[in-house]
């Protein structure tokens, strides 16, 4: 569904509400770095970083599909801007697999060792507890909400969205509007997840959202597992990890997916097939992803430069073009640096009014519970 135009004032007020909510959980403020945001023509410390990164000559990423948050443009812009090669590992890896890639390559400086990762919010403490991340504060550090970054710079939020239904309208004639609809016989063999719920943050958040829509809470995800058990028992659940290709072919015509991923598919497919993106009437959950540099990064300077690029205005706008709300959105809005056409393409702010943001502790508890109980409650192997 095409997002209707909204006034800048309405978006501003809505965003203030969101920021006020996030600020309520804020911790002790961190000291600001001295280097200002940059978009080119770097000097001083950042120029030294650019030189060191160019000397390394390569950055290794993992789990960055080009249609996820417009990462394709981000990667190509970074390569062009700095002349650094980007080695892309397993674009479809889950958050858990990204972390395992760091662990498996601790002693390696070869091409299978990732420099940087982009994982679900709940994985932040694990990175610190297991000493898998390298601390680094980007020059725009002060404009990242306090409660969405580790105080010592081990990880920091990058973007957020809400869980939505991505629907292939060429296959699905009655577009579902809420979770209960998907239990109807007309959706037999049509409903899928975009990942393995034992490993994937996106899939786990789908279960979490289903819990909220079916009598659960941020502290009780069991109803979400029961929902998927029922979905499987009535024959509506397809145990296939859904991708743009499976959606387009009609193999997984209804998918639980972050709104920005669904919107990216809609744009990429250009009506063939026609995609509708539905934010459900209940169980609207927001999800934040985070960036981190591997503690064992083979190219640590290139990794730091990648972070500087992503958290600059330029990098944040690239994410916004992909339908993601960049973590520095509020700061950029206040400085009037977001083009009006990008604001107009976002889903209307009122659709986000019911969204809830779990704390990192709630996410960790939910993640563990879902991973440990999916097999015994739902009994469907998603692959």
Automatic annotation (TrEMBL):
Record-linked Gene3D superfamilies: Periplasmic binding protein-like II
Superkingdom assignment: Bacteria
Signal peptide: 1-31
MF terms in GO: thiamine binding; thiamine pyrophosphate binding
Pfam families, sorted: SBP_bac_6 (PF13343)
Alphabetically ordered keywords of this record: Signal
One GO cellular component, as annotated: outer membrane-bounded periplasmic space
A GO BP annotation: thiamine transport
PANTHER family assigned to the protein according to its UniProt record, in alphabetical order: ABC TRANSPORTER SUBSTRATE-BINDING PROTEIN, THIAMINE-BINDING PERIPLASMIC PROTEIN-RELATED
Protein name: Iron ABC transporter substrate-binding protein
């Amino acid at each position: 569904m095409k997002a209707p135009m909204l006034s800048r004032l309405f978006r501003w007020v809505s965003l203030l509400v969101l920021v006020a909510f996030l600020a309520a959980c804020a911790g002790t403020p961190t000291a600001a770095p001295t280097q200002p945001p940059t978009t080119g023509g770097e000097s001083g410390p950042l120029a030294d970083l650019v030189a060191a990164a160019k000397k390394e000559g390569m950055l290794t990423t993992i789990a960055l599909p080009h249609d996820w948050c417009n990462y394709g443009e981000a990667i190509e812009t970074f390569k062009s801007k700095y002349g650094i090669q980007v080695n892309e590992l397993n674009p479809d890896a889950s958050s858990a697999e990204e972390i395992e890639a760091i662990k498996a390559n601790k002693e390696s400086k070869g091409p299978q060792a990732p420099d940087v990762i982009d994982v679900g919010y709940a994985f932040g403490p694990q990175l610190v507890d297991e000493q898998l991340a390298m601390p680094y504060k980007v020059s725009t550090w002060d404009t990242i909400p306090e409660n969405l970054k580790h105080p010592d710079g081990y990880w920091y939020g990058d973007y957020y969205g809400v869980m939505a239904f991505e629907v292939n309208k060429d296959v699905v004639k009655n577009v579902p509007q809420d979770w209960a609809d998907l239990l109807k016989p007309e959706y037999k063999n049509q409903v899928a997840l975009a990942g393995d719920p034992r490993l994937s943050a996106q899939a786990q958040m789908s279960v979490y959202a289903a819990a909220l829509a079916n009598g659960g809470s941020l502290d009780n995800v069991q109803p979400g597992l029961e929902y998927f058990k029922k979905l499987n028992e009535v024959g509506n659940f397809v145990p296939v990890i859904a991708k743009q290709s499976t959606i387009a072919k009609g193999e997984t015509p209804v998918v639980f997916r972050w709104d920005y991923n669904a919107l990216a598919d809609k744009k990429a497919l250009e009506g063939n097939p026609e995609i509708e993106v539905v934010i459900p009437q209940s169980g609207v959950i927001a999800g934040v992803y985070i960036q981190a540099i591997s503690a064992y990064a083979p190219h640590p300077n290139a990794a730091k430069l990648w972070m500087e690029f992503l958290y600059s205005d330029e990098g944040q706008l690239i994410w916004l073009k992909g339908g993601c709300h960049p973590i520095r959105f509020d700061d950029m809005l206040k400085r009037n640096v977001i083009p009006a056409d990008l604001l107009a393409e976002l889903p209307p702010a009122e659709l986000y009014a019911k969204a809830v943001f779990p704390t990192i502790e709630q996410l960790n508890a939910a993640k563990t519970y879902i991973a440990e109980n999916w097999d015994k409650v739902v009994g469907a192997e998603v692959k």
